[in-house]
Amino acid sequence: MPEGVALARDLVGPAMEAAIARLTPAVHAVAAYHFGFADAAGNPIRSGSGKALRPALALLSARAAGAPPDRGVTAAVAVELVHNWSLLHDDIMDNDTERRHRPTAWTVFGVGPAILAGDALLALAQDLLLEDDTLKGAWASRCLSAAVLRLIDGQGEDLAFEKRDDVTLAECLDMAGNKTAALMACACSIGAVHLGAPPTLAMALAGFGAHVGLAFQLTDDLLGIWGAPEVTGKPVRADLRARKKSLPVVAALNSGQPEAAELGALLTSPEALTEGDLVRAANLIVAAGGKDWAEAEADAQLAKANESLASIDLASDVRAELTAIAEFITARTW
Fold first, then answer.
1. CA distance linking residue 124 with residue 118, whole number of Å
2. Residue 334 forms part of a structural domain
3. Does the residue 306 lie in any domain?
4. b (16+ CB within 10 A) / e for 259-282
5. Which of 77, 172, 210, 255 could form a disulfide linkage to 288, CB 3.0–4.6 angstroms apart?
């Protein structure tokens, strides 16, 4: 695990618990369970609250601006609150019943309470930033709001794709750029923005995050088909079972290869997909080149991310840690 991720857990974890403690008791119960701070009965536990990747990047963006990492904690907490708002709502929209090897919050507390908890996290994130009543606080808030609007746009596109059989690869990449890369770009720049760093630095860091976000989504889509449950926290081939128009799937469907037609027919069949169907679909994606394309594109996006940092003056340790986290979150561990 990169050093920056471990530091983020140490600094941001307690700040996250303190932040959600401000929520009303009923909402706090759902949020604490979702983050892994409590069990369904409200008893304190330590099951882990995710990988702390976005908080780590936010702290590094503060360091990129010449500040110690603790100066980036508020921005890091805000980004992580927004990320988990999206997860709470995504689990409901995708009908996912498991996250981080535990039942999802909506299956434990109900759909309504889970939606409200997500909404509360979104409002709390902005509250934290706007408590800094300087222009810097407002800039950071605007940065986060812009990412949220793009994330909502991307999620809407993702839902719309479920009803279409003609999704292009360009549309799918655009969707991923909104749904995933926008918040990653925000995470990589918001610490610097909150400290009033020069726009050139903030923009370069955001560019780095945007490319890392696309590489991350490509990796996540690969894991959604071929990843082991102990790695993903979800059943194997979960994305195929849900017939998601993920990037490897769309690449295969648009490949022009003979296997594309069979894959399309399989995924649009009105019949429930059997385990044999899922295995066949995964094999067709490989045969049509979807898996190879996604792996190559993830590597290309990672290279572009590092190129984004080439034009700015960064401390060598900060540059190295940004690169290490990017490689860590795009590692394909099956």
1. 10
2. no
3. yes
4. bbeebbebbeeeeebeeebbebbb
5. 255
227 Rama class: left (phi>0) / alpha (psi -120 to 50) / beta: beta
List the domain range (segments joined by +) for residue 262.
3-329
Within a domain: 61: yes
Residue 90: both structure tokens together:
């995504």
Alpha helices in the chain (DSSP H): 3-20, 25-35, 53-64, 73-93, 105-109, 111-130, 135-161, 169-176, 182-194, 199-226, 229-232, 238-241, 247-253, 258-267, 275-287, 290-309, 316-329
Task: Find the radius of gyration of the CA atoms of the chain.
Answer: 20
Whole-number Å distance between alpha carbons of 233 and 239: 12
d(CA 39, CA 102): 10
Taking the CA atoms of 6, 9, 10 and 12 in sequence, report the sign of the dihedral they define: positive
For 333, the token pair is 């561990």
Token representation of residue 31: 């949020």
* Residue 36 three-state SS: coil
| CATH number for 185 | 1.10.600.10
* Four-residue CA torsion sign, 229, 234, 236, 237: negative
Main-chain phi, psi angles of 102, to 5 degrees? -135, 155
The answer to whether the beta carbons of residues 249 and 294 sit under 8 Å apart is: no
- The pTM score is 0.92
Count how many domains the chain has. 1
Following DSSP, what letter does each residue of 139-168 receive, concatenated?
HHHHHHHHHHHHHHHHHHHHHHHTT-S---
Q: What is the pLDDT along the chain (334 residues), one digit of tens a residue?
A: 787 788 889 999 999 999 999 999 999 999 999 999 999 999 999 766 567 899 999 999 999 999 999 999 999 999 999 999 999 999 999 898 988 889 999 999 999 999 999 999 999 999 999 999 999 999 999 999 999 999 999 999 999 998 888 999 999 999 999 999 999 999 999 999 999 999 999 999 999 999 999 999 999 999 999 988 777 767 788 889 989 999 999 999 999 999 999 999 999 999 989 999 999 999 999 999 999 999 999 999 999 999 999 989 999 999 999 999 999 988 876 5
